[in-house]
Amino acid sequence: MKKLIISATALGVLAFAGYSLSVEGKSEEKLPELFIPGMGQSVANDFKLSLESMDSSELPEKQQVYKFKKFNITLEDARKKAAQFDPSFEKAAPKQNAQLNSYSFENETVLVEIEKDTGKMYYQDKTYPSEVAKNIPSDEEAVASAEEFLEKFGWLPETFEPAGVTANTIVPGDVNSETEAGDYVSTKTVHFYQKIDQLPVLGVSRIMVEVGDNGQIVSARKYHKEVEAFTSYGLKSVREAAQDLQTSKGVHNISEDAKNVVLDKVELAYYEDPARLDQQPYLQPVYVFEGTYDYEGKKVSFSGVVPAVSSGSIKAMDADVPPAVSYKEKEGK
Questions:
Q1: Cα–Cα distance, 170 to 233 (Å, whole number)
Q2: Alpha-carbon distance 203 to 206, whole Å?
Q3: Does the pLDDT value for residue 40 go beyond 50?
Q4: Which of 22, 96, 227, 306 is the most buried (most CB within 10 A)?
């Protein structure tokens, strides 16, 4: 394959009244900008890219875009959902959070939070003891306990699968750090990530279950939004997407003063951003790039994300919008 050098010159964008042209020449409604957070470091914004041996022949010209389902969970609906965890919630008067648009049911033993428009839920068993756990399950046992819990309450769609387990450690207050081992495993978190159309879903789309002593479920977080098919959109070429990566129309972790930046791999994925439904009602495809560059005599790996839809773009993150989580990332409690 011929070596291609992509300059940092931006491409012209064909748009009219909020619409762009697809690969078939039909009008497509322009999608809202994606909220994709940066990598938390100073990055290069003026560099050249080499596409040497990267094979993009398997990538499609069009891809399905999905729309997030909007629910209207009433108080009665919320009570029924919360009562699955504690029957007393069936007649409870929950707190309502206007900012999060959610119900919060809580007593001395259980906390259940439910978002009205997305159906996202959080469960916590408040009885879990703070003393040292004696029978923390193995990773395999933790996954089995988490799956049993999620299936019992209908929280495990077929599109999700376990992606990893992390140990959560704490340090008792009475431990002498100079003479004793400081931390110990108190719980384990099982992470579930989603694939749609065989593509990984990046961003905030995840389910996490915290498993404690003897397999007790300490907490569960159902953070993903449900989707329904919207329509197919034409995609940018890899060359266009690579230029977007250079011109602040994508996100990457290429350090300043990087040299010999080479793209080795590109894949298609979906991205669920953390914005509210009124800000971002769609699950959109993105290109995920991987490659290397030279920095201070060393070869460094990097990754990048670019909206894949022809008219797709990103928007700078607001301070109150939570960061995204990669489907490969294994985070703790």
A1: 48
A2: 8
A3: yes
A4: 306
Cα–Cα distance for residue pair 251/103, rounded to 1 Å = 35
In one letter, which amino acid is 244? D
pLDDT at 314 over 90: no
Burial of 170 (0-12, 13-18, 19+ CB in 10 A): middle
Phi-psi region of 112 (alpha: psi -120 to 50; beta: other; left: phi over 0): beta
Give me the phi and psi of 327, to 5 degrees please.
-65, -20
Decide: pTM greater than 0.85: no
Contact 35, 77 (CB under 8 A): no
Per-residue pLDDT at 117 exceeds 80: yes
β-partners of residue 21 are: 27
Report how far apart, in Å, the C-alpha atoms of 254 and of each of 10, 218, 251, 288, 317 are. 19, 39, 9, 14, 19
- Report whether 207 contacts 150 (CB < 8 A): yes
Q: What is the end-to-end Cα distance of the chain in Å, rounded?
A: 45
3-state helix, strand, coil in the chain (%, to 5): 10, 40, 45
Could you say which of 3.40.50.2000, 1.10.443.10, 3.30.310.160, 3.90.870.10 is the CATH number of the domain covering 75-227? 3.30.310.160
Q: Which of 62, 69, 68 is nearest to 232 (CA)?
A: 62
Tokens encoding 101: 């648009």
Give percent of the chain above pLDDT 90.
60
In the block, which residue shows the tokens 């609906």?
A: 77
Q: What is the mean pLDDT of residues 223-232?
A: 96
* pLDDT band, very low/low/confident/very high, at 180 (cuts 50, 70, 90): low
Residue 8 has pLDDT above 60, yes or no: no
